[in-house]
Amino acid sequence: MSRIHDAFHGARAEGRAAVVPYLTAGYPSPEAYLETATRLLEFADLMEIGLPYSDPLGDGPTIQRAGEAALRAGVRTSDVIEMVRVLRERTDKPLLLMTYVNPVFAWGAERFFGSFAEAGLDGVILPDLPPDEDEALVDAAQDAGLETVFLLAPTSTDDRIRTVVARTTGFVYTVSVTGVTGARDRLPDLSPLVRRIRAHTDRPVAVGFGISGAETARQAARVADGVVVGSALLGRLAAGEDPAPLLAEIRRAARVE
Amino acid sequence: MYLPEYPLPDERGRYGPYGGRYVPETLMPALEELEAAYRELRRDPDFLAELDDHLRHYAGRPSPLYFARNLTEAWGGARVYLKREDLNHTGAHKINNTLGQALIARRMGKRRVIAETGAGQHGVSVATVAALFGLEAVIYMGAEDVRRQELNVFRMELLGAEVRTVTSGTRTLKDATNEAIRDWVTHVEDTFYILGSVVGPHPYPMLVRDLQSVIGLEIARQLEEAEGRRTPDVIVAAVGGGSNAIGAFAPFAYLPAGKRPRLIGVEAAGEGLASGRHAASIGAGKRGVLHGSYMYLLHDEDGQILPAHSVSAGLDYPGVGPEHSHYADAGVAEYAAVTDDEALAAFQLLSRAEGILPALESAHAVAYAAKIAPQLARDEVLVINLSGRGDKDVTEVMRIMGKESR
């Protein structure tokens, strides 16, 4: 089976939801990014790598600013491929790229996905691609050997859930709130949405958007197989703090009761 | 009053390869809901009567098709007509779209509307219809534009709208649009997004085109009265996102090739295409996705969106609508570009020749017409879509002219 599949099962065997940290690649600098990512890998089951993008319309202010800073520092797509290569040398855990579609179009899907797969990437998360919108793009990712992850939201109808899970091969990324990325103090009741999704798929379901610490992680882990945390970690980095203790705390809280 | 139905987009919202819905999944149900509501309303006699009544008595339609005798004589070629969208309420073609979308919002039971704005023309238009229909309005505007267009910010506030300053990215229209989409993602259940141009995810490019088609439909009718023919030889219109141009073009664009007028979209060449400081998405861009739609676009080799530049804030957008992208590939329309300097000269030319101050956007169309009209025969008819009035640009033009003369 795939690394992604194994990672969710491994966490489950330990009585936990899988822990999935997100960092913007190259933020605050390529060196500092690799150092932080390596440290976070200790507490992670999977790792999400954000490709900096000029117009991230699904992201809140924290990830926007991190992306802008990385671009200002001159981080290019080819640099992020090299970062994937370095991380792959350091870990066997699954690495996923989160990218908007335009950087993929700009390189051409085959070259873009092929280059990342060759560097050791396991999967790709496409936040502005409803999978039925561009079948060729999804095919290109899968042909390159990448697993494909798409988002579902509280507004998703059963029709949309069916369509999206049909093209999902890694896990289902469930957006906890109707909104953009960003840490929140509390989450809405997630069980109705997760239950609706599970009615259509056996794949692992991870919850993201709004995970800020132990309390929100505990709430997500109660219903889901994985917990994604991004803005809260980047917030620590932006404040000049080490995000590793926060991720360790989230891992402890992500027990499945 | 009717809303024309065209062969495109296809059922997936595509114009050839262009268009589509590259958006966060959160918005998919809302886009499907909007499309379904619109497809029903476009044939609803009550809705159409309500729209028609507001277009006539509130916006002041039909706008005149004015024979520009002095320009015609000065250029010595084609008979030149100006479609006077500048005479609409709020001073531009924008009201054709905002009235329609606000009426749809009301029918869908949405009490809150949001919009993006660059220079503020669309924002003012949205604030206007929100006041008219008693809707709560939030307008997103880039910090850079808020600074440059102080007066329009105050106009929107006078009309009762809230203006939110956007400080991300390049702090201009593109980022204001991102922020409006983020607001919509967050408040999609009770909020209607009034998009201002023929861009964005399906069904917006179709919806805005249909509402703006009143421009071209009136041109055909008015030309029949004036010239005894429904189709001009040439139509020239400025293209940023492309809504005034599509409104003038679409009613003619699907005629068979031999019967179709020459349709010419004029993009902003800014300081020149070679300078890199321009807004010519078709003339110098590559295909890609911005704001949910596949289109011609200004972006670098990595797909990072590049800032656009034009002296005209309304053309200062790094993409161009999917239907224009398709027209360009299929040869349905031609696309040219004129520089800031050429547009400024045309601004002064039209002011002096006809006593009409055009918007800087529209001055781009005038500038290109000045190049081709002299080459046309005297019995040929050229229509310039005069999309807006120039009062809003007077301060900026004064600054530029003053700087040059000192």
TrEMBL record, chain A:
PROSITE patterns: TRP_SYNTHASE_ALPHA (PS00167). One of its GO terms (cellular component) is cytosol. It catalyses: (1S,2R)-1-C-(indol-3-yl)glycerol 3-phosphate + L-serine = D-glyceraldehyde 3-phosphate + L-tryptophan + H2O. Pathway: Amino-acid biosynthesis; L-tryptophan biosynthesis; L-tryptophan from chorismate: step 5/5. The active site is at E48, D59. The keyword Disulfide bond does not apply. Keywords: Amino-acid biosynthesis, Aromatic amino acid biosynthesis, Lyase, Tryptophan biosynthesis. GO terms for molecular function: tryptophan synthase activity. Belongs to the TrpA family. Tetramer of two alpha and two beta chains. The alpha subunit is responsible for the aldol cleavage of indoleglycerol phosphate to indole and glyceraldehyde 3-phosphate. HAMAP family: Trp_synth_alpha (MF_00131). This is Tryptophan synthase alpha chain. It comes from Oceanithermus profundus.
UniProtKB/TrEMBL annotation, chain B:
Gene3D superfamilies: 3.40.50.1100. Its EC number is 4.2.1.20. It is an enzyme of class 4 (lyase). Its cofactor is pyridoxal 5'-phosphate. One of its GO terms (cellular component) is cytoplasm. The modification N6-(pyridoxal phosphate)lysine is found at K94. Pathway: Amino-acid biosynthesis; L-tryptophan biosynthesis; L-tryptophan from chorismate: step 5/5. Residues 59-388 form the Tryptophan synthase beta chain-like PALP domain. It catalyses: (1S,2R)-1-C-(indol-3-yl)glycerol 3-phosphate + L-serine = D-glyceraldehyde 3-phosphate + L-tryptophan + H2O. NCBIfam families: trpB (TIGR00263). Tetramer of two alpha and two beta chains. PANTHER family: TRYPTOPHAN SYNTHASE, TRYPTOPHAN SYNTHASE-RELATED. This is Tryptophan synthase beta chain. It comes from Oceanithermus profundus. The gene is trpB.
